[in-house]
Amino acid sequence: MGAGRFYLGTAVALICVVGAPGCAKKDEAPTVDEAQVAEQTRIEQEESRRQEQAAALAERAASLRAAIGGALGQAEGGESGLPAKLDEARGEARARLAEAESALAQLGDASGDAWEAARARVDDALSRLDSAWQQASTALSDWERREAEALAASVEGPARYDPALGLIRGLDGNLYPTYRPATVRRIQERLRRAGLYAGPVHGHLDQGTMDAVAQFQKAEGLAASGVPSPRTRHYLFEHPHLD
Q1: Sheet holding 175-177, edge to edge
Q2: What's the rounded Cα separation, in Å, for the pair 78 and 68?
Q3: Model-level pTM?
Q4: Is the domain covering 161-242 a CATH 1.10.101.10 domain?
């Protein structure tokens, strides 16, 4: 009987040695499916690639959005006399911007093959936006050049305009971009209402207008350049105490 037990135990031990089910040692780690690991790694790498592409597309859209909002937004609301070509180009650029932002929103909700299709739509929309922006920028530059030439030829043109550079020299001695007559007229009207300017509203950034702008800048604690910079215009048009 003892011998039988010995042989039975030996047989069980031999079966476990050859890896029979249920005989694995408790301290042995379970076998890992290498195919599953490789697939998970591939999925994570693909997700990382998509996130990088989406971030690059979003950055590209943000850059174009800033350019459009900055340059084209300088033609302030209510301004009349914009050339039809510029007005049309601005509208086209803004329409393409809306299209690109819509495509970007769809990209965030897509996955799998749908993501690749959405990414292609975003890239195409941004390409059209870039083309529209280039056309609008060219139209804007042409218009600003003609406006500057008109100012230079005007008898009442700005006293500090440098036609060779296409810039104006502020009261602080620094050079600044020119301003369109419609913008200067709004500034002159605003300064008049504030009691800081008594000259004509002719749209020319002449010495009298610059002196009035500088007076306003000093009162607001701004650098007294006499030039209506974006920050100066913000203070001038947004502060209710001037009304």
Answers
A1: 161-162, 167-169, 175-177
A2: 18
A3: 0.44
A4: yes
In a structure prediction context, what are the per-residue pLDDT tens digits for the chain, which is 243 residues long? Answer: 454 444 444 444 444 444 455 555 555 555 568 888 888 888 888 888 888 888 888 887 777 777 666 555 554 443 445 567 777 777 788 788 888 888 888 887 777 778 888 888 888 888 888 888 788 777 777 776 776 666 555 544 455 666 666 778 888 888 888 787 888 888 999 999 989 999 888 888 888 899 999 999 999 999 999 999 888 988 888 875 555
Question: If you search the block for the tokens 């020299």, which residue do you land on?
Answer: 169
Residue spans of the domains in the chain: they are: 55-68+83-153, 161-242
Contact 179, 111 (CB under 8 A): no
Task: Count Cβ atoms below 10 Å from residue 27 Cβ, excluding itself.
Answer: 5
Task: Report the C-alpha gap between 108 and 85 in whole angstroms.
Answer: 35
> What DSSP state is assigned to residue 75?
S
Residue 24 region, left (φ>0) first, then alpha (ψ -120 to 50), else beta? beta
